[in-house]
Write a structure and sequence with these properties.
Layout lengths: L15 E3 L4 E3 L1 H17 L6 E5 L4 H10 L7 E5 L4 H14 L8 E2 L2 E2 L7 H9 L12 H16 L3 H11 L4
Parallel strand pairs: 3-4, 4-6
Antiparallel strand pairs: 1-2, 5-6
Helix pairs in contact: 3-5, 3-6
Bound molecules: zinc ion (ZN).
Amino acid sequence: MEESKKCAVCGKSAAFYSTYLKQNLCKKHFERMLIRRVRSNMASNNIRGYSFRIGNENKCGEAFLEFLFKEYTKGKTLTLKSNTLEDFSIAVMRFFMFQDESKFKISEKGSFNPLFNVSEQEIVSFFSLKNKKVTLKKRSEKEKAVLDFLSKLEERRPGGMISIVKAGVALEII
Ligand SMILES: [Zn+2]
């Protein structure tokens, strides 16, 4: 019998492998690390004291943001856009492959995209552990072709999509 994988944090049976952290994680710690990643994205961009409006750019991301920010704080309104790691890595690849300018950035005046390093696969897993289904974003043929290429890259080199997004940030593409 194959030995079951253990959570890197608590040693309990793992439910998910995080390509981001390169660790096996149980349900509790998978959820925690995903929520912590979004909060840390916001903290490192000094996003606090706002009330949030949630954007509908990506159905899957939107569901996750609505789950996380059910209770809005009072203050000036900031739009939290729902583009995910897939959206941003597609945007960077399209720039490299076709010289297509990205239509969105991680941080813009009046809006922030806290899911730029959170994948739709992680969001789907997050909700499936709660027995909830989320809708994946509908994509154009061009986007599907680029995402297919990126998924194959991710299979060969876990974390590849994150690296592409980091390169896109450094080059100010996104
Ligand atoms: Zn654990």
